[in-house]
Amino acid sequence: MEEYRLQIIGFGPAALGIFVAADRVGRLTELLNTGICIHEKISDIESWESLKYRIPSNSPALDFLSEIRTDGIFAPLLSGPLGTQLKACGTNPVCLTLIASFLKQMLQTVVKLLDTHSRCQVIWGHSIESIKYAEGFIVHSQQTPLHSQYLLLATGACAKSVTDAELQITVDAEQLLRGNADEEIARYLAEKRPVYIVGGSHSSFSAAGYLLEFFSDHFHCAAPIKILSKRRVKEMYSPSEAQQTLLKDNDLINTDTGEVNKFDGLRGVARELYRQICKGEESRIEIIYGPQADIRLTQSSPAPVYINATGYRPRLPNICTATGEQLVPDTTVGGNNVLKDSVTSMLLNDGNPVSGLYGIGLGFADLKTDGCQVGINFFHGCSAARILTGILETPDHQNRPRPVQSPNFSQPAH
Ligand SMILES: Cc1cc2nc3c(=O)[nH]c(=O)nc-3n(C[C@H](O)[C@H](O)[C@H](O)COP(=O)(O)OP(=O)(O)OC[C@H]3O[C@@H](n4cnc5c(N)ncnc54)[C@H](O)[C@@H]3O)c2cc1C
After folding, report:
1. Band (412; pLDDT cuts 50, 70, 90)
2. Of the residues 37, 48, 50, 96, which should be mutated to test ligand 1's pocket, given the most ligand atoms within 8 Å of the CB?
3. Distance from the alpha carbon of residue 321 to the mean position of ligand 1, in angstroms
4. Ligand 1 atom closest to Cα of residue 15
5. What does the alpha-carbon distance between residue 299 and residue 221 come to, in Å, rounded to a whole number?
6. To test the ligand 1 pocket, which listed residue (111, 373, 376) has its Cβ within 8 A of the most ligand atoms?
7. How confident is the model at residue 59 (pLDDT cuts 50, 70, 90)?
8. Cα distance between the two ends of the chain
9. Which candidate in 148, 164, 262, 323 could, as Cys together with 7 as Cys, close a disulfide (CB 3.0–4.6 Å)?
10. Pocket of ligand 1 (CB under 6 A)
């Protein structure tokens, strides 16, 4: 059986964060020397589309660069055309398709590095659905069982379903913002179907902005787009904005930075749109709050189109123990995010840390006073740094590969 120190499932921006963090602290070579195998379900790097949304970022352009070491492996990219363009945008938002192109270049840099390292590999084109946890982690890929002491889940998140509307027409905000649902949306709008955006999140207002920008011809009457929000819409405030604002009970205040609702509230262009609606300057959108926001009250003929912006839940592969029991990581109430051990950052099962199991990224973010920390700068910052330390600083005797019995897997193909 092939042995690695670390296997990573999913190679999106969050997994990239581990390499950004290692480069930042000068430990990249050390990390590669331990042996890493990455499993990514998309077939090749050309098809990589993480964060390729046709909307402005909710973070300032510089946030995407702030954790990258300026004289490290990504230095040529920072001074290249895309890096220069991002720097020039400074504290302004930037279209996420540009960010996606920059991140793809970073990923290519890491892939090249891994390709030249004998103890590392990236396996493309295999979706990892199940993992065995038996004195480490066994991942079965391309007929070969691979073993590692550590496993990092970086599989991202999928849209939560809108169960009540299952029989109706539902489009995920995520797909809409990528431009993947344009044809069907155009067809539904031509059929004069009402549009309801379900949820009062940042994605909801981004989706509303997207519809107004790319389908403006269809929206002439009053309030053709309705946003259904059961709870009050939250805005993010910088420390200075927070001082001039009357905060509400459920606003999340970061006592270290003074920011309010940082990973929870609307920001950037989505926040501007929300404010225009509140001031009566955007009559094409109506926000329906509280009990009236129930989708059952919206049934009509022709059937409405629901844009599902109710949030995300982590994509969790099945993990089972040597005795066949399922090991389901603990999640927050509502299942939006995994829970982590406050000391080791390892994922939990029934409240106990699962030795060697980490998670990072959307659906696997760290929980702080300001909510789920879902920004790229965070994945590339302290979240990744904590995991890196856990992986590299375990004493050697604990890292020695152990023999693993795995009767369900084929023999190692050497
Ligand atoms: C609409 C939207 C806008 C956002 N805007 C911003 C922003 O402006 N600024 C910001 O900082 N953050 C933003 N985020 C949050 C976050 O930074 C991004 O979602 C980011 O793409 C998350 O990266 P990830 O690696 O966690 O997940 P993903 O990008 O989803 O990557 C996961 C990877 O894992 C692979 N994978 C999944 N399952 C398997 C499996 N079983 N086996 C093998 N491979 C698998 C996938 O193919 C994918 O490549 C936004 C998120 C959304 C949804």
Report:
1. very low
2. 50
3. 28
4. 25
5. 19
6. 376
7. confident
8. 8
9. 148
10. 9-15, 39-42, 50-51, 53, 57-59, 96, 127-128, 154-156, 174, 177, 203, 315, 317, 361-362, 374-376
Residue 179 carries which side chain, given as an amino acid letter? G
From residue 10, how far is each of 37, 85, 222, 317, 322 by CA, in Å? Answer: 11, 28, 44, 11, 23
User: pLDDT tens across 316-368, in order?
Assistant: 999 999 899 999 999 998 899 999 999 999 999 999 999 999 999 999 999 88
CATH (one of 3.40.50.300, 3.40.710.10, 3.50.50.60, 2.30.29.30) for 2-158+313-399: 3.50.50.60
Give residue 397's pLDDT: 41
The residue among 154, 153, 156, 141 whose CA lies nearest residue 349 is 153
By C-alpha distance, which of 181, 182, 279, 287 is closest to 230? Answer: 287
Rounded CA-CA distance 16/40 in Å is 12
From residue 339, give the alpha-carbon distance in Å to each of 24, 330, 350, 359. Answer: 26, 6, 10, 9
Write down the pLDDT at residue 413: 29
- pLDDT at site 162: 77
Pocket test for ligand 1, best of 43, 51, 104, 137 (most atoms within 8 A of CB): 51
Domain boundaries, the chain: 2-158+313-399, 161-310
Q: Is the pLDDT of residue 216 over 60?
A: yes
> Distance of CA 134 to CAs 61, 198, 357, 410, Å?
43, 42, 12, 16
Which atom of ligand 1 is closest in space to residue 362's alpha carbon?
26
More confident: 53 or 295: 53
Beta strands in 205-338 (DSSP E): 225-229, 285-289, 305-308, 312-314, 318-321
Residue nearest ligand 1's atom 45 by CA: 10
